[in-house]
Each structure stands twice: as C-alpha cells, then as structure tokens.
Write a structure and sequence with these properties.
Order of helices and strands: H
Strand content: under 5%
Number of strands: 0
Shape: rod-shaped
Number of domains: 1
Structural class: mainly alpha
Distance between the termini: 64 Å
Radius of gyration: 20 Å
Helix content: over 70%
Number of helices: 1
Length: 45
C-alpha cells in the first residue's frame, strides 16, 4: 500500500471518528437540556 493512500485512509478514519464524537456530544447536550427542562417543569407543578 503506497504511503499516500495509507495516510489518506488514516485521515479519513480520524475525520469519521471526530464527526461521530461531535454528533454524540450534540445528542447528549440535547438530552441534558430536555432533562433539565423536565426537572424544572416538575418543580413548578
């Protein structure tokens, strides 16, 4: 496998992992906002 192709492959894998991490963070943030909203709503009931 030529070095350039190997380097490109490794870079693509890194980008995929970083993208997955960012999507995971966003999903967790949305879940936390919803959870805190629900807690606040129940406190006010």
């Amino acid at each position: 496998m030529p070095q350039e192709i190997k380097t490109d492959f490794i870079q693509e894998v890194k980008e995929l992992l970083n993208s997955a991490r960012e999507r995971t963070k966003a999903a967790i943030n949305i879940a936390m906002v919803y959870t805190y909203y629900e807690i606040g709503r129940r406190i006010l009931m």
